[in-house]
Amino acid sequence: MRSPTVSIIIPTHNGRAHLEECFRSLRALNYPSDKREIILVDNGSTDGSVEYVRESYPEATVVRNEKNEGFAGPCNQGAGCSQSKYLAFLNNDTRVHPEWLTELTRSIESPKIDTEMVVCAAGRIVSWDGHVIDYDGGILNFHGHGHHLGMGQPVSAGSSHEQLTIFASAASMLIRRDVFLEVGGFDQDYFAYFEDVDLGWRLWLSGFQVLYCPTAIVFHKGQGTAALSQAERKKLLERNGLFNVFKNYSDTNLEQVLLPALSLSTMKASIDPEYRTSYLEAINEFFTCLDQLKVKRHDIQRRRKLDDEKLFPLFREPFRPSMHDANYWSLQRKLVRSFGLEEKFFKEGGLMKEQLIGYENLIEDLYRLQRETATVHGVQLAEARQEGETLRARVRELEALLQARDGQLAEARQEGETLRVRVREVEALLPARDGQLAEARGKIAVLDERNQLLERSIQDYMRRLDEFLNLEKRRLSTRIINFLFWSRGSRP
Fold first, then answer.
1. What is 294-344 written as a DSSP string?
2. 42 Cβ neighbours under 8 A, 6+ residues apart
3. Are strands 138-140 and 146-148 parallel, antiparallel or unpaired?
4. How far is Cα 192 from Cα 195, in angstroms, rounded to an integer?
5. C-alpha separations of 347 from 142, 258, 305, 310, 351 in Å
6. If you average pLDDT over residues 27-46, what whole number do you get?
7. What is the pLDDT, as a whole number, of residue 383?
8. What angle do CA 122, 128, 134 make, to 5 degrees?
9. Disulfide check for 93: which of 50, 221, 252, 412 has CB 3.0–4.6 Å away?
10. What is the enclosing helix (H) or strand (E) of 424?
11. Directed axis angle between helix 195-205 and helix 290-303, to 10°?
């Protein structure tokens, strides 16, 4: 079998950390290099993603947006740049098995299938280590939320054969380019999430089919493409689910499904107060977009070639709840019964009862778990309150101690200020003291000089006195001698 041409389209936003492994695996594909191309659509990245790809993978085409345009729009941009027979869509936080593209094209071009009907193929998606299933086919519930079959299960529990599925995950999808453009591509108003569910639904309504190929394997990290907050993610999932419902059901079925879908969205807002605003914004944006949705719905219904009832079996689990809460599940059960949705989705009573009983058992289990959890939470709450009171008492002690420390600190600061003032006064006196000291030293020098002169004068006086006394002593001695001499000479 000759290998058809394929354009591999990868949207990214600040995904530099993922691109090396993704592109390295694409370069190692066991698929003719002249039959494949890579188109990276960058959503205003600031982490060097574009520069890295242009330098390291010059064979890739890079389309650059100024801001984050989400997932759906950039995929359409990439499709617009392609001239290949097929488009392959990947998330940036994936790496592919060397046979991934070969297996996808083999399944969709197999002589065993009707290639005019089967125009889209989905590959198996597994965890990064390859042990856990991420996608093993598509599931769709009645209020427009898509789920991945087998998610969280070991790979050994996955499907081993090709089968039709309601939608292909856009993290690993192959589709004929002409059909993709014919049905309008991804709905860009979705921005991100469930755009692949909507595309699969529309393909089936237009008379085409989607095939799941478990041998085309992609390894997925998760949450590397959208880069959205949890609040924004919840809003988009809820809003886009409502978009799916409004656009794709027949008139009769829409009348029965829309009100329950809106009721469940409203219920989520009351159950999940942390994200209440997200759910309410989703509902508000749904009604705000009704005019555009009516135009899209008209086009989809105009193209319709398949009745809803023939498509419902591919939903697989139409009553699968989108929130794990007993009250939510109970409301869904009431809505399903009140609006007659059991008979609509299940013509075979056995299958209907099996799924409904299963979900009802889950609801009872949830109620029981909530009661048990409430008891445990009551004990924990009492303990937490006691601990909180102890902590509050300790806080009061610390606050009192802190006030005492603040008083001591104020006193220390006041004493310090007083000392600083005294230091400034002493510093101001120092120049005067230095002058007085210099003056005193001058006077001492003068006195020292006078003392030296006085000492020299005294020494000179004492010398003269000694000379005078010596002279007088000699004179006196001479007189005494003369006196004695003359006294003896005058005796008779």
1. HHHHHHHHHH--S-HHHHGGGGS-TT--SS--HHHHHHHHHHHHHTTHHHH
2. 12, 13, 49, 50, 62, 63, 64, 65
3. antiparallel
4. 6
5. 15, 21, 21, 11, 8
6. 96
7. 76
8. 40
9. 221
10. helix 349-489
11. 40
pLDDT in tens, 84-95: 999 999 999 999
Task: Quick: pLDDT tens for 229-284.
Answer: 999 999 999 999 999 999 999 999 999 999 999 999 999 999 999 999 999 999 99
Phi, psi of 119 (to 5 degrees): -115, -5
Q: What angle do CA 419, 423, 424 make, to 5 degrees?
A: 120
Burial class (CB in 10 A: 0-12, 13-18, 19+), 214: buried
Distance in angstroms (rounded) separating the CA atoms of residues 109 and 162: 13
How far is the C-alpha of 97 from the C-alpha of 139, rounded, in Å? 24
The number of beta carbons lying within 10 Å of the beta carbon of residue 467 is 10
Q: Specify which residues 217 forms β-bridges with.
A: 124
The answer to whether the beta carbons of residues 264 and 322 sit under 8 Å apart is yes
Tokens of 443: 């006077």
Which residues make beta-bridge pairs with 39?
9, 61
Burial degree of 291 (CB within 10 A; 0-12, 13-18, 19+): exposed
Contact yes or no for 49/30 (Cβ under 8 A): no
Q: Which two tokens stand for residue 205?
A: 């309504």
Q: What is the C-alpha to C-alpha distance for residues 16 and 156, in angstroms, rounded to an integer?
A: 32
Are 16 and 9 a contacting pair, CB within 8 Å? no
CA angle 96, 102, 107 (to 5 degrees): 115
What's the pLDDT at 398?
A: 85
**Integer Cα distance of 100 and 94 in angstroms:** 12
Q: Tokens in use for 305?
A: 């070639």
Give, in order, the Cα–Cα distances in Å from 298 to each of 208, 293, 306: 19, 8, 15
Q: Which residues, other chains included, contact 245 with Cβ-Cβ below 8 Å and sequence gap of 6+?
A: 143, 144, 254, 257, 258, 261
Parallel/antiparallel/unpaired status of strands 118-127 and 172-176: antiparallel
Token digits for 145?
Answer: 């939320």
- Rounded distance between C-alpha atoms, residue 190 and residue 178, angstroms: 22
In the predicted structure, residue 374 carries a pLDDT above the cut 70 = no
Q: Judge contact between 302 and 206, C-beta under 8 A.
A: no
Residue 66 burial (CB < 10 Å; 0-12/13-18/19+)?
exposed
| Segment 411-427 mean pLDDT | 86
* Helices 251-271, 326-338: inter-axial angle, 10-degree rounding: 160
Segment (H or E) for 40: strand 36-43
Domains and CATH numbers, the chain: 6-347 (3.90.550.10)
Distance CA 356, CA 400 (A): 62
